[in-house]
Design a protein that fits this description.
Number of helices: 3
Radius of gyration: 17 Å
Distance between the termini: 55 Å
Number of domains: 1
CATH topology: Helix Hairpins
Shape: elongated
Number of strands: 0
Structural class: mainly alpha
């Protein structure tokens, strides 16, 4: 088995695990971690592509995806903390409407 097949199998399994966590878990923190896992899988595939084809643009996209993932994690964690402090649980099923 060559390296490309291993990378695709790894990224596919990471993405599938992240998608399963987002789909089947109702805890907000677990859902956020699933999203981060999916973004990490995309980054692994992009870095492999950049290494195969000496593609500097792919590395720039990886840096952009990492920056977006960091911002998404900060905003997501802030929202989760706000929901926890309001007295409601950190479960996605109890969040049915937005309140000010």
């Amino acid at each position: 088995m060559n390296l490309t097949a291993v990378v695709w199998a790894t990224t596919g399994s990471l993405f599938a695990i992240g998608l399963a966590v987002v789909t089947f878990r109702r805890q907000l923190l677990a859902m956020l971690l699933g999203l981060e896992l999916m973004l990490a899988a995309v980054n692994v595939a992009l870095v492999h592509h950049a290494g195969l084809f000496d593609d500097a643009e792919a590395l720039a996209v990886v840096a952009l995806v990492i920056a977006v993932a960091a911002a998404e994690a900060v905003v997501g964690l802030a929202l989760i903390l706000r929901v926890r402090r309001s007295g409601r649980g950190a479960d996605a099923s109890v969040l049915t409407e937005l309140r000010g």
